[in-house]
């Protein structure tokens, strides 16, 4: 199992990323970002974006959605709020500084939760997944897109080598899909719906919050 990142490392890294994030990460992440947003738009309704960052994904949603975003990074959120003030994104309701490990939203608030390039970076991925599961409605979806650990071959060796060298940048290239699958298996009300590759090197994973047996 990979060593998890701590909160201070991630906050420091993304404060540094904020001024250049759109220019540097926008082109690299565009296909994964759009794939996640398209899956969310197919569901529609109230969507929570965990790790909304600078609001880079605002253009990828449509009028059939109501977006709420959360992020821990104040500098990143300042960029997102500046985009909102342009008036171009009426479908974005609010962006809030919030820790995804302990969300302040009521249970079953959202139709869909999206986390793009986030779950491999948080201090406790399983706890964040459980919070996403809590705030999504029964029948709703949790949509993740990330680079996931190759696990075997040359690519896996490169990812292990890079792991220690990229921690200070707030990255964790060796995070395995097995951790996501194990979380779902341990949760009686979570089902893996989809796992597919998204070019050039991302994976989209979708879970559904299944109705309670007692219901």
Automatic annotation (TrEMBL):
<dbReference type="InterPro" id="IPR029063">
    <property type="entry name" value="SAM-dependent_MTases_sf"/>
</dbReference>
<dbReference type="InterPro" id="IPR050508">
    <property type="entry name" value="Methyltransf_Superfamily"/>
</dbReference>
<keyword id="KW-0489">Methyltransferase</keyword>
<dbReference type="InterPro" id="IPR013216">
    <property type="entry name" value="Methyltransf_11"/>
</dbReference>
<keyword id="KW-0808">Transferase</keyword>
<protein>
    <submittedName>
        <fullName>Phosphatidylethanolamine N-methyltransferase PmtA</fullName>
        <ecNumber>2.1.1.17</ecNumber>
    </submittedName>
</protein>
<dbReference type="GO" id="GO:0004608">
    <property type="term" value="F:phosphatidylethanolamine N-methyltransferase activity"/>
</dbReference>
<dbReference type="Pfam" id="PF08241">
    <property type="entry name" value="Methyltransf_11"/>
</dbReference>
<dbReference type="GO" id="GO:0032259">
    <property type="term" value="P:methylation"/>
</dbReference>
<feature type="domain" description="Methyltransferase type 11">
    <location>
        <begin position="48"/>
        <end position="144"/>
    </location>
</feature>
């Amino acid at each position: 199992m990979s060593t998890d990142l701590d909160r201070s490392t991630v906050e420091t890294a993304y404060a540094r990323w904020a001024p250049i994030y759109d220019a540097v990460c926008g082109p690299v992440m565009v296909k994964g970002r759009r794939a996640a947003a398209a899956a969310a738009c197919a569901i529609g309704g109230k969507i929570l974006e965990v790790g909304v960052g600078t609001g880079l994904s605002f253009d990828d949603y449509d009028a059939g959605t109501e977006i709420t975003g959360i992020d821990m990074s104040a500098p990143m959120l300042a960029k997102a709020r500046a985009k909102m003030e342009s008036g171009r994104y009426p479908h974005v309701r609010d962006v809030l500084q919030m820790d995804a490990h302990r969300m302040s939203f009521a249970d079953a608030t959202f139709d869909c939760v999206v986390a793009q390039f986030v779950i491999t970076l948080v201090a406790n991925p399983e706890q964040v997944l459980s919070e996403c599961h809590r705030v999504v409605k029964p029948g709703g979806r949790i949509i993740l897109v990330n680079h996931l650990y190759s696990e075997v071959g040359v690519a896996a060796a490169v990812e292990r080598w890079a792991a220690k060298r990229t921690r200070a940048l707030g990255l964790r290239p060796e995070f395995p899909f097995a951790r996501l699958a194990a979380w779902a298996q341990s949760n009686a009300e979570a089902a893996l719906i989809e796992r597919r590759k998204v070019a050039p090197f991302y994976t989209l994973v979708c879970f559904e919050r299944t109705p309670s047996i007692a219901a």
